[in-house]
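_Per-residue structure_
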Amino acid sequence: MIRLAFILGAALLMAVIIHIATIFAIPYNSQNDVWHRMLSLGPLHRIHTVSDPKEAIALSQDLDPAFAYGICRVDLTDAPILLKGNLTGDFWSLNYLDRQGRSQFSVTNQISGPVINVVLATRGQQRLLSERPDLIEDTTIIISATENQGLLLLRAFVASERNRSATADAISALSCGPLWRQDTL
């Protein structure tokens, strides 16, 4: 009888452990996270402009329709990512989001003005950049990536609906891509 109670107790304990592990694993294996929703926008390392308020809300309830968005999905496995260009206007902000959609870094036009010159790099890539200062400009903002994949989310305030298309065009003109190719180093 004691042996049977021990076996049942061990089975119950194992079931509880498996249940808790499954609950904690769900967010990491979900196909309905920010990263997978952004897959519909297109390929990596390209600015995808979302200026239509209805499209922004359909993409995520967290996106404010008063803004136009530029979204760049990035993979840092081979090289750091450079986001560069000019964006004039009343307000813009740039967020780096990890794969789970958690904001890891943010910068606004209050810091850098109309010029966007940001490099997203892993710690190892940052060490390489410190050894090779010729690869980046002095005014470049370097963001430390927590993972190899993530999102750069640019929000530009649209003060008037008449300016929405001009703001979207300015976002589309930004470049987002690898800082170097493997064969050039």
Remarks:
- The chain has six helices and nine strands.
